[in-house]
Structures are given as structure tokens and as C-alpha cells.
Amino acid sequence: MTAPDERPLPPPAPETFRYEERDRVGIITLDRPDRLNALTFAVYRELADFFTVVANRTLDPSGRGARALVLRGEGKGFCSGGDVEDIIGRLFERDAEGLLRFTRMTGELIEAMRLCPLPIVASVKRVAAGAGAVMALASDVRIVGEHAFFAFLFPQVGLSGADMGASYLLPRVVGLGHATRILLTGERVEAKRAERIGLATEVVADDPPEAVDEAAFAFAKRLADGPHFALRMTKTMLQKELDLPLPQAIEAEAQAQALCMMHPDFREAHDAWKEKRAPRFR
């Protein structure tokens, strides 16, 4: 009989997208390839809830569950944004309160991604537009196909470029100058330019398109095989320190590092170095 603290935790079972776990990497797949994985109201809501569930699940003492996540789209593209038929057309039927409920819900998704302590690796194939571009931006790592592009195209449809946290996150990733041009014009940012300004973490060959997914999985597995507690702490501190003055940031890091020094992985890394072997992180 399996001991209670060794029972594998069942992975979440979403209804509007796919999720699987392999080698401690959780793979989130947007699954509407005929619509370039455009988002619906239901996908927005469930994704926001999902990132919270996955993050809390890894806190179980058994240590089961994903240690890093891949966010990808089925087929040739990543995500073309909100579905024109399912969302845009229906927004015209809403009053001011209904519109605000929707815009707050979309922002909740990005907030959930940033607060999720697991590293998120976006596999950007072909197109990351609108909400899809912001979801990629909210990921920690962006593996981008050489023929892919980002498009924060909100101004081109009569909306503010400041949407879903884009005007908060993008200047912090690429700088205020680049972010201002991108969010004012809604122009495409091709893969090479994205890599040059820091929007793309790495550009890889995308023939076949699955090669991008494979590269993203390999990066996520590299993280999943590392010191889980330390990487969770690193992502948490990167997010929390964005708006801290330097003295408070230094103190926050001092406390975070002291906690890491009390974790068994710190001792294990030292023992592995002395014994000339690979560390076995918990």
C-alpha cells in the first residue's frame, strides 16, 4: 500500500485547454488551432484559476507535481488573442459595468501568471498577438520561433495599448523607449528584433513548428531539474522587488537568501561538490 505522503497528486483537469505533466514539467496547451488558439471568456477564466491551483499544488509535502511550466499553442501558432466572434462581438452588448468585469478578468490572468512561483516558459510559434502577446510577456522565459512575431495590436482596434498589464511589464522587459513605440503603434515585433530588445529570450528554428515546443520543454526541464525551492524564491523576489526601493530590496534579498540557506538543497549542493557528483535536489 502506498504511504499517504507518497500518493501522487492528481494533475488539474481543465476543460477549456489541455494539461499534462512530463518529467516534472507541466505543459499547458491552448487547443483551438483552427482559430490560432484565440481565447474565449471561458479560457480566460479557467487559465487564471489554473495558475493558482498549479502553484499551490507544488506546496504539498510529497513533492509531487510540476516544478516548471510550458505555455504553448496547438498547431502552428501560439495565440492570436481574444476571439473576434466569441469575445469582441459580444462586448458591444455589455454596459460599462459588464465591460469592466471583463477587463478585470483578463488582468487577473496576467496577475496569476506573475504571482505563480513556478517558472513559466512560453513557446511562441508564428503569432503572439493581443492577449497572446501579453501572456507571452507575462511568462518568465520566451522561446521564439525564427518566423514568429509579437503584436500588441490594441491601438489598431481602437483600444489602449495599456491592457492586461502590458504597460507595466513591457517597459520592465525592453525599456521605456521600445515599449512606448510598440504600445503606441501596435506594430509587429519580428523575432530577430524581439531578441535584440530582450522580448525574446531565445530564437530557435521553427521548421517544423514543433521544434519550438521541444526547445521550450528542454528549457523548462532544465529548470525543473534544478533547486526547486531556490528557483521559486528567485521568481518571487524578481516580482516583489520591481517596485521596492533599493534598501528594502537588499533587506528582502537578505531574508530570502537566509531561508534558502536553511533548505536542504543548499547542503546537498555543497555535499555534491565535495563528492564530485551531480546534486540530488529535493
Give a description of the structure.
There is one protein chain. The protein is 48% helix and 14% strand. It has 282 residues and is of the alpha/beta class. The protein folds into 2 domains: 4-224, 2-enoyl-CoA Hydratase, Chain A, domain 1 (Alpha-Beta Complex); 228-274. The strands form 2 sheets. The protein has a 6-stranded mixed β-sheet, sandwiched between helices. Helix 9 (228-240) packs antiparallel against helix 10. It is globular, with a radius of gyration of 20 Å. The two termini are 23 Å apart.
Number of strands: 9
Cα separation of the termini: 23 Å
Instruction: Write down the overall mean pLDDT.
Output: 93
Q: What order do the strands of the largest sheet run in, or round the barrel if closed?
A: 1-2-3-4-6-9
- What's the architecture of the largest domain, going by CATH? Alpha-Beta Complex
Question: What's the CATH topology name of the largest domain?
Answer: 2-enoyl-CoA Hydratase, Chain A, domain 1
Question: What is the total domain count?
Answer: 2
Tally of contiguous helical segments: 11
SSE pattern: EEHEHHEEHEEHHEHEHHHH
Q: Structural class, from secondary structure content?
A: alpha/beta
- The helix content is 40-55%
Oligomer: single chain
What is the CATH superfamily label of the largest domain?
A: 2-enoyl-CoA Hydratase, Chain A, domain 1
